[in-house]
Design goal:
Elements (H helix, E strand, L loop, with lengths): L1 H18 L6 H8 L2 E4 L3 E7 L2 E15 L2 E9 L7 E16 L7 E15 L2 H10 L12 E2 L16 E10 L2 E4 L22 E3 L9 H8 L3 E4 L3 E6 L5 E14 L2 E9 L9 E14 L8 E14 L2 H8 L15 E2 L17 E9 L2 E4 L23 E2 L8 H13 L1
Antiparallel strand pairs: 1-3, 1-10, 2-3, 3-4, 4-5, 5-6, 6-7, 6-8, 8-9, 11-13, 11-20, 12-13, 13-14, 14-15, 15-16, 16-17, 16-18, 18-19, 19-20
The structure holds 2-acetamido-2-deoxy-beta-D-glucopyranose (5 copies).
The site of one 2-acetamido-2-deoxy-beta-D-glucopyranose has 4 residues, from loops.
Length: 419
């Protein structure tokens, strides 16, 4: 009895100790970064071409051989199945750590200088033509032929001869997951003065030894957690004029059963702002739609059907906006009061009382991380099935389950046994 309570107490202490690690110093980050990392699935990246934003897909590998040395391979595709490669970039160089992010504590802006090697391969005729049109040299680009541009000019990228490629990105590590920066809804890359405002879906160690779950295991695990955003997520959204814009949200997701869900989404005006403008809450049902292992082993397709919808305006400005366009039969909104919008006309959201919100999504669970599918780049819903995406969105974490390092537990057990 005494022994038991001691063990439980010790474990509680251990859990508290581990949960306490929220942020990290630059030195801690440098220590953890030395590893080989890869994308978890093909990553969906918005790319603006003139007036439209299209989906591109990316697979990344980043090896950090020393805290200041990297080697990377980035492959871009124009299809979600990863068959149609458009460009490949391979680079080797040095990292210079800049400042800590002012919006994500413990994340650091890094400068990547490709000073040892930068090799580009173009895989489509369109790209070869586009590069050659801007090239005034006598050495034209050839499809599928790698070109070492370490010290060469690349007009398409405004890169001059004898100038190295330089890229900026955020680095953040939590548990055994590497996060880099997220681009905005138009795919704009970060710069030194405009660091990323969010984190991407994480990269995992190259030697991934986490076993994928069966559908039954996934159902069992997911109902035992409340899954929430680590930081504000960057997403495509629509502004008041129905124009594409970047929005900032946090999500909290839970499953009362393996065929029902609850989801709260809070909307923020920008990444740094901590005051939510409104909260949407949805309760509904989940229909399993089959194996999605083509995206990542262990993932499942599922349709989310919203049965109940609630809206809480969180500031007077939003309340006033909603009330200025109030449909018949809807009571005026009040700040911080949850309104039941189920089966009501809601023109501000483009909904009528007969609309049923459905999404053909993805579900994936890995350790203490839960994932849904990436959002379509046009900010619409992934419905019907043809609009489904085949990449993962940012991860949601169940704070109740920290990942225990096996080594730590084993050594801890040994201490307990010795006592
Ligand atoms: C990273 O390291 C692994 C293992 O050493 C190697 O197979 C892979 O090619 C490396 N990737 C890059 C981008 O250097
Ligand atoms: C592959 O790319 C070509 C040219 O960019 C395009 O015409 C074709 O539709 C793509 N195929 C798939 C499966 O996306
Ligand atoms: C790359 O830059 C680092 C840091 O400035 C330097 O130590 C290294 O020698 C450079 N490598 C090459 C190949 O220029
Ligand atoms: C590319 O060129 C750079 C500098 O000219 C050279 O140091 C590097 O080894 C080359 N990379 C490869 C893979 O040949
Ligand atoms: C919200 O409205 C729907 C439809 O009228 C109803 O089924 C549901 O019970 C309501 N929710 C609450 C909490 O009253």
């Amino acid at each position: 009895m005494k022994n038991n309570s001691f063990t439980i107490l010790s474990f509680i202490t251990l859990i508290i100790m581990m949960n306490g690690v929220q942020t990290q110093t630059l030195d801690e980050l440098k220590e953890k970064i030395v590893n080989e990392w890869k994308s978890l699935s093909l990553e969906l990246i918005p790319n603006q071409i003139q007036d439209t934003v299209v989906a591109e897909y990316q697979r990344r590998e980043w090896n950090f051989t020393q805290e200041f040395e990297f080697s990377t391979k980035i492959e871009n595709f124009n299809d979600y199945s990863g068959k149609n490669r458009t460009t490949s970039i391979e680079g080797v160089g040095v990292i210079t750590f800049q400042s800590e992010s002012d919006v994500i504590k413990g994340a650091y802006l890094c400068q990547f200088t490709f000073n040892k090697s930068a090799i580009i391969t173009l895989h489509t005729d369109e790209l070869v033509n586009a590069f050659n049109q801007l090239e005034n040299g006598d050495k034209p680009w050839v499809k599928d032929q790698p070109r070492n541009v370490t010290t060469l000019a690349v007009p398409v990228f405004n890169k001059l001869a004898n100038q190295f490629f330089i890229a900026y990105d955020l680095i953040y590590i939590k548990d055994n997951y590497l996060y880099m920066g997220e681009v905005d809804a138009f795919g704009n890359e970060a710069t030194q003065t405009q660091p990323p405002k969010g984190l991407c879906a994480p990269l995992i160690p190259l030697n991934d030894d986490v076993e994928s779950l069966s559908l039954e295991e996934l159902k069992e695990e997911m109902i035992n957690g409340v899954w929430s955003s680590m930081t504000k997520e960057i997403r495509p959204g629509r502004d008041a004029n129905n124009q594409l814009t970047t929005i900032y949200i946090t999500r909290e997701l839970w499953f009362p059963t393996d065929s029902t869900f609850g989801l709260k989404i809070n909307f923020f005006p920008d990444q740094g702002n901590t005051n939510s403008q409104m909260e949407l809450e949805m309760l509904g049902s989940l229909i399993w739609e089959g194996d999605a292992s083509s995206v990542v082993p262990g993932a499942q397709f599922a349709q989310f059907v919203v049965d109940q919808l609630y809206l809480t305006p969180k500031n007077d400005q939003f309340t006033a906006n909603f009330n200025s366009n109030l449909p018949q039969g809807v009571e005026p909104f009040q700040t911080n009061l949850k309104a039941n919008m189920t089966a009501k006309d809601f023109p501000a959201f483009g909904l009528t009382k007969n609309d049923v919100i459905k999404e053909n999504d993805l579900v994936y669970l890995r350790q203490n991380r839960f994932y849904l599918g990436a959002r379509p780049v046009d900010a619409g819903r992934p419905y019907p099935i043809e609009r489904r995406t085949y990449s993962l969105a940012d991860d949601l974490i169940d704070p109740e389950r920290e990942i225990f390092s096996t080594l730590l537990i084993v050594s801890y057990m040994l201490i307990l046994i010795n006592i």
